[in-house]
């Protein structure tokens, strides 16, 4: 059995980055932008009023200043008049500041009588002007990143209607097992619902992949071979179940028959030990264990980093954080243990029930405490590493 770190290295070795495509901004959120984006204009492109009020010369501000209103400037329709001594221009938020003016007073601080305004009270220190280029200047660069809604707004303001992003890796998800029916179907007395495929679909989509759900394969060579054939064209095939040593666990044997170049089988981790990986046809292939929590933990520890590598991001494990324990932990065995835990204000609290079949425990957990092989018993208050779910 190899270590989790070694398994992840070998999995990165199976990844062929997907390359890039250009998408409109409406499809850009959540995508990985692969190259810097460069603004082709300055924002604001002119000094602009930040408020509705009057533009005037700061030098005119004095006790009981009275100014003549000589024109109007609105957003999208600036004034071509120049503001001279004793003059003001009615101005609205977003309008270009007229020539000659260097200050804006908000309309609440003004009384108006016909063409004349009086500035009343203390107007404070704010000039209510957004200088040209205050947000960014032409040539401003947004570096490669997973695009947030805020990034998309910035790219639009930079006048970039399209953006170059990594193509989403297509990941074919293949649940296997005679006992499985789809959610919403009527299970027979010995049957259970295929759940892992849906959890993994959600996990992979959120990580930036394009998961493709295949029909459940039965535990026969013919059914598995046919289903694996349906995955053709995917970047990665992920099988679920049938990875262990039972008489009906055929994924290893069938993939070998199909000529899989195996990268490894079995990882010293808990849950998730019977993990298989390699290359088959033009695809990478990862065979996840069927136990529901095992499949989701392997998805978190291995598939999420793999998706990032497919997208061209640095090959790195899931980020770890540290927090104190709110409850003690027993000594760990020889496998790296990913314990389902909640993160409370007092610290991390591992669930008493760590059976890898308990999805209700996983769903309630916000964290996986990472226990190295052979880790000693831990007391309340000790800092331990964890991965956020
Ligand atoms: N003699 C041994 N038995 C087992 C070992 C071992 O080392 N020696 N390892 C155990 C471990 S650890 C795991 S994990 C499981 C993995 O088994 P498989 O990958 O072969 O998975 P299955 O046997 O097909 O299924 C296990 C379990 O999970 C349920 N399952 C499967 N697929 C789904 C799905 N898509 N959605 C929901 N539930 C699923 C299945 O019904 C079984 O209950 O092997 C242990 N055995
Ligand atoms: O690895 Mo199994 O995943 O311990 O339940």
Mean pLDDT level: 97
Q: Write down the CATH class of the largest domain.
A: Alpha Beta
Quote the CATH topology of the largest domain: Molybdenum Cofactor Biosythetic Enzyme, Chain A
Alpha carbon gap, first and last residue: 26 Å
Give the quaternary arrangement of the chains: single chain
Task: Tell me the CATH superfamily of the largest domain.
Answer: MoaB/Mog-like domain
Q: What value does the Rg take, in angstroms?
A: 31 Å
3D shape: elongated
Number of domains: 4
**Protein structure class:** alpha+beta
Instruction: Output the strand order for the largest sheet.
Output: 8-5-7-6-10-9
Query: Could you say what the CATH architecture of the largest domain is?
Result: 3-Layer(aba) Sandwich
How much of the residues is beta strand, in percent? Answer: 25-35%
Identify low-pLDDT runs.
Answer: none
The number of distinct β-strands equals 28
Heterogens = ligand LQZAQKY5, molybdate ion
Major sheet summary line: 6 strands, mixed
Would you kindly provide a written description of the structure presented here, covering whatever features stand out?
With 389 residues, the chain is of the alpha+beta class. The chain folds into four domains: 4-19 and 167-310, MoaB/Mog-like domain (Molybdenum Cofactor Biosythetic Enzyme, Chain A, 3-Layer(aba) Sandwich), CATH 3.40.980.10; 21-43 and 145-165, no CATH class; 48-130, Beta Complex (Molybdopterin biosynthesis moeA protein, domain 3), CATH 2.170.190.11; 321-388, Beta Barrel (Beta-clip). The chain has seven helices and 28 strands. It has a six-stranded mixed beta sheet, with no helix packed on it. It has a six-stranded mixed beta sheet with strand order 18-15-19-23-22-20, with helices on both faces. Strand 25 and strand 26 form a beta hairpin. The longest helix is centred in the C-terminal third of the chain and has 19 residues, at 292-310. The protein starts with a helix and ends with a strand. The model has no long low-confidence stretch (mean pLDDT 97). Bound molecules: ligand LQZAQKY5 and molybdate ion (MOO).
């Amino acid at each position: 059995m190899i270590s989790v770190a070694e398994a992840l290295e070998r999995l990165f070795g199976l990844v062929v980055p997907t390359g890039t495509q250009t998408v409109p901004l409406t499809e850009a959120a959540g995508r990985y932008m692969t190259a810097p984006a460069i603004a082709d204009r300055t924002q604001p492109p002119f000094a602009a009023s930040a408020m509705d009020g009057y533009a005037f010369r700061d030098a005119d501000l004095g006790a009981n200043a009275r100014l003549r209103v000589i024109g109007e400037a609105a957003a999208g329709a600036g004034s071509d008049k120049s503001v001279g001594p004793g003059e003001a221009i009615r101005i609205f938020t977003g309008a270009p500041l007229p020539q000659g003016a260097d200050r804006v007073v908000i309309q609440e601080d003004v009384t108006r009588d016909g063409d004349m305004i009086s500035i009343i009270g203390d107007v404070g220190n704010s000039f209510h002007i957004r200088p040209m280029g205050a947000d960014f200047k032409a040539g401003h660069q947004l570096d490669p990143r997973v695009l947030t809604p805020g990034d998309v707004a910035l790219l639009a303001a930079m006048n970039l209607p399209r953006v170059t992003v990594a193509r989403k890796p297509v990941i074919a998800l293949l649940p296997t097992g005679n006992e499985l029916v789809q959610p919403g179907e009527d299970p027979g007395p010995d049957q259970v619902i295929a759940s892992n495929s849906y959890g993994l679909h959600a996990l992979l989509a959120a990580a930036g992949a394009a998961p493709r759900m295949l029909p459940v394969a039965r535990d026969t060579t013919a059914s598995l071979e046919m289903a694996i054939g349906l995955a053709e064209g995917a970047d990665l095939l992920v099988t679920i179940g049938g990875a262990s040593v039972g008489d009906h666990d055929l994924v290893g044997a069938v993939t070998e028959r199909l000529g899989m170049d195996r990268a490894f089988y079995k990882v010293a981790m808990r849950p998730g030990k019977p993990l298989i990986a390699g290359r088959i046809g033009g695809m990478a292939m990862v065979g996840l264990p069927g136990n529901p929590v095992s499949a989701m933990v392997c998805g978190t520890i291995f598939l999420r980093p793999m998706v990032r590598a497919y997208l061209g991001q640095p090959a790195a494990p899931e980020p770890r954080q540290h927090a104190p324990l709110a409850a003690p932990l027993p000594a760990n065995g020889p496998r790296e243990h990913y314990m389902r835990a909640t993160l409370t204000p007092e610290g991390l609290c591992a669930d008493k029930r760590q059976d890898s079949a308990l999805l209700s425990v996983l769903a309630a957990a916000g964290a996986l405490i990472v226990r190295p092989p052979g880790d000693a018993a831990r007391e309340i208050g000790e800092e331990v590493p964890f991965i956020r779910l």
